[in-house]
Amino acid sequence: ILFPVSNLCGKCRPRDTDLLQPSLNFLYWSLHQTTPCSQQRAVAVLLSNVSLLELLQKVLECTWLRSPPSEPAYLSSEDALLCSGWLLVASLLLYQHRYNTEVHQTLSLDLTEVLNAVIFRKKKPILLLVSIMQFLRAVLRQNFSSSLLVIVGQNTAQGATQPQPPSLQDAALRPLAMWQVFSLVVSLQNLLVHKDLLLSQAVVACLETLVEYLYVKNQDVALHVASQPWHRFLLFTLLNGGQKSFLQPEVLRLMALFLRYQSSNIISQKEISQILQEAAEANLAELPEATSRALHLFLCQV
């Protein structure tokens, strides 16, 4: 059924939301809820469908072409389609790289537009932001070098935002620029303050992947980003003062991130001891799965 559904999608237009949205969801789950052998075949089927990839290109571009909704919490049918499109493309990037599948049609996206979709959110629904960050994580993990995706350079309209010519740091981080990195980090920090569980998980994961990417490109930049004093204020904001407040998944993962990159000005021995004390007093069997995984990551880093 994957073959006719993908063909059907290729014959649609981006405004055919009632048909496209469940169809793209079906393609997405066909990739994830299957055996590795079937998964490889499913990736090959989807990547060989040029019409489908051309449609996905148009769907993603609608993210910055359409006007923002008046009610940011409301997920319209158009926004739901965008979510499905971004999640499907992120999955295709991941699995194309894993199986080294042949690509018959590349996708072309302007990196500035993708970053601005997160940095300048313009009342985007949470689920759409999460979906775009999932895509951003995929391209960061592949160092922007996927054979499925072509990253377009800075557009001319954005050129005025960067007052200085590219520095040596910009050259090392290419295609990212330093101002984009810091703008993205600040935006991710602001999103964490919302304390939405789904959003927090996506933001912390994106921040982890971003710092990993920076560390490979330029260790000094990565350590500088990880040691920004604002991170400590962010941690205090996330801690609600309640009992075992340190045992929140996003807090534990942030702590592990700062430990990994030796940000001693962000997390001190006192905080480490307090987390260990709270973990010792907790009933580990009753902790949510996300908290258990985050605690394990933190303890391994310690």
UniProtKB/TrEMBL annotation:
GO BP, sorted A to Z = meiosis I
This one is known as: MEI1 protein
Q: Which organism is it from?
A: Anhinga rufa
